[in-house]
Every structure is written in structure tokens, then in C-alpha cells.
Amino acid sequence: MVICSEVPNNPGGSITNAAEVIAAGVIGANELPTPLVWIEHWPEESTTDGEETFDLVVFSRYEVIERAPYLGQTRAWVGEPMWKPLDRASVEVLIRDKV
Question: Which of 20, 49, 77, 85 is most exposed, with minimal Cβ within 10 Å?
Fold first, then answer.
């Protein structure tokens, strides 16, 4: 299981816009078994309305592949992401601990 949190006041691209690239990098670098549970977390400081959010992210496939170069760099990628909102209590049940 991975919880990927947006950095407060992130000046760059969001974790949502790069979910499939970030997941591929984390899976590859840590040799994680797939499929895995991927939870996207936005702390209250990172949201426009000041409300913390969690989403379960399911990818259309989990095989890490190399994609054609983007801005001169080849990138690892997994399948298309789909998001399902979760509440804090559901996340705590999934991870069997407090968030």
C-alpha cells in the first residue's frame, strides 16, 4: 500500500496530474508487488477549500513500461488512473492505523 501526499504549496505539477508516472517510479524503485493499493492524499494546506481529501487510485494496468521521450526524457508509466473518493475512516481501516 502506498499513500502519496501532495506537498503543501507545491509550485510544480500536482500528484493527480502525474499519478501514473509517480506510481511507476515508486513501484520500480522499490520493487513493489502489483497490483497494489494506491491512495492519493491532499492535506488541507494543499486544497483550495481547506479540506483534506483522500482518493483510492486504481490503474488500468500495473505493468511498468517505458514511454516515448517527453521533453527529451524517457519516462516509466503504468496504466490510466481512475479515482474513487475515500474518507479518513476508510483509509484508517485500509491501513489498520491512524492517518
Answer: 49
- Domain span at 78: 2-95
What are the cell numbers at 69? 521521450
Residues 6 or more apart whose CB falls under 8 angstroms from that of 31 comprise none
pLDDT digits over 38-64, tens only? 999 999 988 888 899 999 999 999 999
Backbone φ and ψ for 84, nearest 5 degrees, come out as -130, 120
* CA pair distance 31, 9, nearest whole angstrom: 30
Per the structure, the count of domains in the chain is 1
Assess contact for 82 and 57: CB atoms under 8 A.
Answer: yes
